[in-house]
Amino acid sequence: MNGAHLRRNPWVVLSVLCVAVFLVVVDNTIVNVALPILSERLHASNAGLQWIVDGYSLPFAGLLLAGAEVADRYGRLRVMNSALVAFALWSVLAATSHSMTQLLVARALMGATAAFIFPATLSLVTVAFDDEAQRAKAFGIWGATAGVAIALGPVAGGYLLNHFWFGSIFLINLPVALAALALTWWHVGESRSPLLRRLDWSGLTLGTSGVTALVFAIIEAPSWGWLSPRVLGLGGVAVLLGAGFVVVERRQSDPLLDVRLFSRGPFSAGAIAIATSFFSLFGVIFYVTQYFQMVRGYSALSSGLHTLPFALVTMVTTPLAAVVALKAGARWVVGAGLVTMGTAMIWIASLSAHVAYVLPIVGAMSLFGVGFSLITPTSTAAVMGSLSPNQIGSGAAVNETTRELGGTLGVAVMGSLFASEFSRRVTENFRHLGLPRALQVDARGSMQAALSTIEHVSPQARPTASALVQDSFMSAFHHTTVVGGLVAIVVGVIVALWLPSSTLSRGGRSLVRGARG
């Protein structure tokens, strides 16, 4: 540890690092409101839209553990600032995209670079604070910054798209990254880990390749066929790579991911709860923003603003959830949170296309936010509080990786369920319109593609065709949301049975107090 940190105001250090945290996390969701525009401009299918989102979060998740190791070895400030420069450059590449290929490459590079920024910020926050109580509060603020960034991403993206072209949602990263660079260079001191570990290349390769194969199979399944040889083959490869990863990591003295931690009930239950909450959150945001624009006709900015009830409720109820967790224990709070999220999703699935916004939609989104708030600080406390001091670093890495993987799989799984149901309903609805077979196939690709095919229908039939497209979207919307809601409820019941009935441990209480404070 470098003593330079001790001569600096730790709260200033935290504030500066939160700028970098906000930058890399907001890119998880800022792109969602641009999906309809990107679908039109770049002719992206539903699978393409999923890759625009997961193309960032997949390498982000896959390289988080490696990013932490590299930062510990070569200097956290140096690695973070180098990654910030690269992140800004890749953002310019994304902003100037004229094809899906260029955009997906840029998004993947941005996600990979973010993996070397995010863990470094947490490590730098850790070494900036000597006092345990202050450090716990700092962790709470650090985590809240990430949560606010996720929630405000659609609003920020909507504002930019309402005033500028679609590339602005990426180009805005340039001044923020430069500001973060200047502030961290001036206010944050360098630090390294006193323990230098060998980088686990075999674990990194097996783990990242396995998750990539799984996500690739899920996203492409609607177009290839869920039981097609390619999908089944990729699924088999993912299983084999995953099994190989577990075997290799169990034999390593310094594993990239200590899989033995999952033998602890509280740790596993907390990690699964975190992954499921982000699975639901990213999945819902992925197509709710499309629903607001393509069905209700909102602008990008209006669409982002209409997601604010979730953000506001989350910010208000997270500290209250921490207080409840201290009294009732993680078991009931986390279980209730997942069941609440699932119930909110099923409520959303019952809403019609043009239902009133103020009570039904705001109510469902607020309930969804309450459930999410109950899970995040309490699950993190359960995960971290179950570890010994020398396992804290590995536990923190697992905690962040499960968040990103949960979000990645949420977009992949729920997005693919949506795409499959949409394709099926469009095929059924367009069969009797007399369109050429090629146009019927094109219409299955995305909502934007289906709307484009209406131009080939006679003027008298266009209102009917438009209603059929909307019906196809809402059918897919309802089907997917019900499935996602049931998953959250089932996992919530399992977690409530799995977590210990006692209240949080001392370490868990410290972290929850930090979230509350």
Task: Note the topology.
Blueprint: H1 10-26, H2 35-41, H3 46-74, H4 76-95, H5 100-114, H6 118-128, H7 132-163, H8 168-171, H9 173-187, H10 201-224, H11 229-251, H12 265-295, H13 300-305, H14 308-328, H15 330-349, H16 357-385, H17 392-430, H18 437-443, H19 447-453, H20 462-498, H21 506-516
Helix pairs in contact: 1-6, 1-7, 1-9, 3-4, 3-5, 3-6, 3-10, 3-17, 4-5, 4-6, 4-9, 6-7, 7-14, 7-21, 10-11, 10-17, 12-15, 12-16, 12-17, 12-20, 14-15, 14-16, 14-21, 15-16, 15-20, 16-21, 17-20, 18-19
Note down, in words, how this protein is organized.
By secondary structure, the chain is mainly α. It folds into three domains: 1-196, MFS general substrate transporter like domains (Growth Hormone, Chain: A, Up-down Bundle); 200-255; 263-517, Growth Hormone, Chain: A. Helices cover 78% and strands 0% of the residues. It is built from 21 helices and no strands. The protein has helices spanning 10-26, 35-41, 46-74, 76-95, 100-114, 118-128, 132-163, 168-171, 173-187, 201-224, 229-251, 265-295, 300-305, 308-328, 330-349, 357-385, 392-430, 437-443, 447-453, 462-498, 506-516. Helix 3 packs antiparallel against helix 10 (201-224) and helix 10 runs parallel beside helix 17 (392-430). It is globular. It starts with 9 loop residues before the first helix and ends with a helix. Mean pLDDT is 80; it is low at 1-6, 503-507 and 509-517.
Structural descriptors:
517 residues, mainly alpha, Growth Hormone, Chain: A
Count up the domains. 3
CATH homologous superfamily grouping of the largest domain: MFS general substrate transporter like domains
Number of helices: 21
By secondary-structure content and strand pairing, the structural class works out as mainly alpha
Give the SSE order as H and E letters: HHHHHHHHHHHHHHHHHHHHH
Judging by the overall fold, what is the CATH architecture of the largest domain?
A: Up-down Bundle
Please indicate the percent range of residues in DSSP E strands (runs of 2 or more): under 5%
